[in-house]
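Note to self: keep these together.
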Amino acid sequence: MIRVLIVDDDKLARKGLISIVPWADCGMEVVGEAANGAKALDFLEANPVELAVVDLTMPVMTGLEFIEASRERWPELQYVVLSFHEDFQNVQSALRLGTLDYISKMRLEQSDCTEVFRRVGKLLQSKDAPETAPGENGTTSEGWQEIKREWLHFGWLYSADILESLRTQTLALAPSPRQIEHLLVRVHETAGEAYQWSQIPGVPGISGVEEGLGWLEKLGKALTEELIAREDSGNTAVCLLRAAEYIRGHIAEPLSMKAVAQQVNLSRSYFAASFKKATGMTFNHFLRMERVRAARTLLEKGTVPVHDVAQHVGYEDVKYFAQVFTQQVGVTPMEYRARCVGGL
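Structure:
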């Protein structure tokens, strides 16, 4: 049995949680309770515990202070936090410290709590808790782990197509709001550290996947604007984002990797390697993708005759343009225009 300690200054909340969860069914046993973080530390000195369920807002020693202090002494101890929705900023801090999950005290219901502790119990028994903690009623597949890695890689900053693809894949996996909140916290933390972004917007509490994806998109736009506006031309990430913007701004012109690399003051070889690492594709692949995207926009608007679209997106050879477009989109430019007109 996994030994559990309940830490909450509200006695009724402690007793309520103890009574509504079928702990044995979750592979757990409540071995103690404490009214604040300091008393919880005293309990841990004399009693072995694998999981602490911690209220974040307590007198004497807050939940976050308790987690930080106990993690130093008992690094194997795991945590689930209790919090009101308005304390979500504290939840974010707790998740960054490695807590497995959280429970909203606004919906302290048997079914919700049981689901959380059954899931946490399986994770602790698998010895893989910190990396694979799934969300409530969400996916636990390798696909979700891969999607999380893609979001944290930030290749989606460089292209609307990459962002759209990642968004579609995320929705297809149907993650839970809890999983999305975990993802937002990780993206927020990574963006701040990787790009030295001191004014990064805080993570909001969200009610659904679409809302979370919308926040990620807004964060990406804000981060891109922040990086491009910086004067530091020696930062590779800044240079690559400026390169992507330069490509989009000069899409009708002949563009070579050497010329774009010169525009952002990078050597051709370093630019090639860095660009592929950042975006997940070669320069030429990225250029074709952006040109086809620009062509789609023109075809959708109907502002340019189909046979002239090629030149507007940098292709002198109309037949070659049609070939590239068809390979990426699955239909010819003429068919794509017809579909757009038919949908008006």
